[in-house]
Amino acid sequence: MRRLAAVLTTALALGVGLTACGESDPVADAGTGETREISHAMGATKVPAAPKRVVVLDTDKIDTALSLGVTPVGAATAGEAKSWPTYFGAEKLTGITEVGVLTEPDLEAINALKPDLILGSKFRQEKFYDELSAIAPTVFTEKVGVTWKENFLLDGRALGKEQEAKDLLATYEKRAKDVGAKLGDPGARKVSIVRFIPGNIRVYGPDSFSGIVVGDTGLGRPERQRLDGKEDKRFDLVSAERVNEVDGDVVFVTAYGEKAAAEQAKVTAGSLWQGLSAVKAGRAHVVSDETWMTGIGVTAANKILDDLEKHLPA
């Protein structure tokens, strides 16, 4: 608590106040001083018309910022992954400072960067919102994964890149339809999505990020992964003893971190996994967790389409 108080005291001494209530304009020194009001999960916040020093606190927001040509000055990392999205290339990540992990942002490090905009998620960082807002204008999206397209457009508006975001999303959606069309009858192919996380095996449903991308192509899903009757259609758990349930015409497999990768290697070497029809047919493919699972943005979505084109020839 003393550390948080010190951060807030420093921020307030710099003349940075809460923005959601419109009591002050913390971006008066940013560029022209022009601001725009953005409605978001925590209310309404005035943000710079063209923010220059952006801190992002979730993996989707790293993808969004970089996709829109904005290099964040700071970014949180995903815990087990311990990195930012390498699919952009090392040169795009140069100069970004680590500011804690998704569920525990480092307020001191964020304050030291003197950001003029912070992008985060109510789902992950709601309890930090007041502290973050005292440092800089802060915009939160509501959920993760299932609303990834809406999040992308909201973050695009906050970054002053609304039209660019709309254009990128439209281009992706057209490409997804084209990928499906090349497959003839895409719905006849059942795509299974499996993820190993430490201690668990997940199958991903239609409301997950990767499930939405696969759905955008028109490809089908195994009945087990449609999650019919379940309120949460993002993912479900499967035990190692019931891994035969993950079968499909093609199986895409990821692992979240090194521990999960070790567990994946053990399970996939076993007889139940080796007995899957997709494995026997050579249609089980290990793909990148950071694109299929943690990317949750338009560039990651296009990387998933790359994998579908590669492994599902017409």
Short description:
The chain is of the alpha/beta class.
Helices and strands in order, then pairings?
Layout: H1 2-13, E1 35-40, E2 43-48, E3 54-56, H2 59-67, E4 74-77, H3 90-93, E5 97-101, E6 104-105, H4 107-112, E7 117-121, H5 122-125, H6 129-135, E8 138-141, H7 148-158, H8 162-182, E9 191-197, E10 200-204, H9 209-217, E11 235-238, E12 250-255, H10 257-268, H11 271-274, H12 277-280, E13 284-286, H13 289-294, H14 298-311
Parallel strand pairs: 3-4, 3-7, 4-5, 7-8, 9-12, 12-13
Antiparallel strand pairs: 1-2, 5-6, 9-10, 10-11
Write up what this structure looks like.
This protein starts with a helix and ends with a helix. The chain is globular and about 60 Å long. Strand 1 and strand 2 form a beta hairpin. The longest helix has 21 residues, at 162-182. The relative contact order is 0.13. It has a 6-stranded mixed beta sheet with strand order 6-5-4-3-7-8, sandwiched between helices. Strands 11-10-9-12-13 form a 5-stranded mixed beta sheet. The protein is built from 14 helices and 13 strands. The protein has 314 residues and is of the alpha/beta class. It has 2 domains: 2-167, Rossmann fold (3-Layer(aba) Sandwich); 179-311, 3-Layer(aba) Sandwich (Rossmann fold), CATH 3.40.50. 39% of the residues lie in helices and 19% in strands. The protein has helices at residues 2-13, 59-67, 90-93, 107-112, 122-125, 129-135, 148-158, 162-182, 209-217, 257-268, 271-274, 277-280, 289-294, 298-311, and strands at 35-40, 43-48, 54-56, 74-77, 97-101, 104-105, 117-121, 138-141, 191-197, 200-204, 235-238, 250-255, 284-286.
